[in-house]
Task: structure prediction
Amino acid sequence: MSGAVAANGSVTGVAPDAKLVVISVCGETGNGCQYSDIISGLEWCTLNKSVFNISVISMSFGGGLHTEETCDISSYEPFLSQAYSSGLHLVASSGNSESFVGINAPACSNKVTGVAIGLRDGTMAGGNRMDALRIVAPTINPTAYVSGNSGGFGGTSASAAVVSGSIALVLQYVNLTGNTFNQSEVEDILNNTGFGIYDSGNSNRTYSVVDVYEAISVINDTIFPELTINSPINYSNTTNLELTFNITVEDNLNLTNVTLWHNFTDWHSNSTNSSGINAEYLFTLNFTEGIYLWGIVACDVYNE
Result:
């Protein structure tokens, strides 16, 4: 799975400049993962976090089928909590038994970002899922380095590796901008900026396909929409019973909504959805004689 994260040659992983610390906790075939080895790996990463600048633990393994919202597996939950408290981002595959009511441990832990399989074409491609799982990622035939050669592999193990690489990129950008985001904030960014998939006929839930570019864009979005009131002007008088409010809104990202707030008949709003970057908006309303207050609110795709 390391190739999916950081391959950097004729093919590239999600984060090709990432540095890896590889710890084996399973057998040569990828089976036989022992709790004692997993615990030792978690402890080692936590203790050596600063030494090797470790930021993400990617776990492409799991076991059991847990239907509860969070699962506290006594065998190694304390070690997950210790790693989480140290600031490490924990990612794990949800499992491949196609359950719609539960996921594997440790993906079910509330300290871990569980990952199933989803594609940007709107296809929910597989993996265990339930309410506690929000993020999915591509996995169908990704190409990466396998034993020195390039090849394809799949399953939620690969999806977890894709999300781990994505988190590494987000964290690198966050550090470059002088910000600090905790694990929940990073997961929220990935969830809120991903491409939504409705898993119709299966789990009947909506999941988010991770999109690193969009995630970094929201971090970079420090520009609020700029509003220009074209008409009417402040403190204007008119004898017309019908009045058109003309507003121009500009932003560096697509707008989602422009709302006119007013007290014509108590405080309420008239809004219009938007998919443009720079646009002119018209609100035409009827009113009776009086003095009125009004204002405009515009939001872009990242709620600025």
